[in-house]
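Hi R.,

Here's the chain you asked about this morning:
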Amino acid sequence: MKIKLKPLHYAIATLALAAFLPFFITNDYYMMLLNRVLINIIVVLGLNFITGLTGQMNLGTAGIFALGAYSSALFTKYTNLSPWLGLVTAIIMGVLIGRGLGYPSLRVKGVYLSLTTIGFGEVVRLLIANTPKLTGGTQGVRNIRPYHIGSYQFQTQKEMYYLFLVFTAIAFFCAWRIACSKWGRIFKSLRDNAEAVEMSGVDIASCKIKAFTVASIFGTVAGAMYAHYMGYINPSTFNLDLSTNYVIMLMVGGLGSVTGTIFGSAVVTILPEMLRFLGNYYQIVFCSIILLGAIFFPDGWVSAVTVLFKKVYQRAAKGHYAEGGE
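And here is the predicted structure, written out as tokens:
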């Protein structure tokens, strides 16, 4: 009897394996990288709804991420309330951003939408940098309180890792359920043939706004996690390069692949650090690897590995049966 494993099973196995990683990693720097991977996974899960499923390019993810970080950080700073309420504030901010960005997407497409989202990200960054009385300006926000449950605070890298792993598991399950639901099927059909979807009586405007709203909520939640994890944020972090990195993560994992976001986020976050021994050339090598991957594996690296694994398995099975195996 053959057991057919679904992509969700692989994702669950990966998350289960991730729970044991801190037992083998004692270096805080490596744990910090893993925490950044978990934060990035949540951002890319959201971006996948816009760019991966509905096929609309979004290069303003850094702006969404920044507003989530600043809304939560400033809320806790000025009210002295729990960071968990700051997380709720970030979710509300995500809803507002989704509605605000969703409407322009109804009128502009392709490169024009890309330029619109780039403009949004830059406006957010400049607005934060030029309102020092509210946001601290270029000096940023310092001494952001960490998450806590009662008197217990999540302070060490391992403690934050397990907290973020729970966040990531919840975000992944929500993203997977949405992608496999009626919404997900409509998002995919919008990417493939928007005219046919509209002729079927589907409200395209509402669907696009929903996609942007869900993506923005994921992005602002990740931003809040980042702010309370780092304890310090400033506008220079949330630039166009950050938005581009998120698109690369999505591309490496595979456009439209929910499970691929895990792999793509891990590769693009960790690989540059592994190439640091190359000195000033590590960025050139990293970009070359990503470029070659885009050329030879246009459907994502995960898809390429899956196809290769299936071919090897099929050849092994044929050889087994040719030798008279059962």
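One quick note: Residues 204-230 form the longest helix (27 residues).

Cheers,
M.
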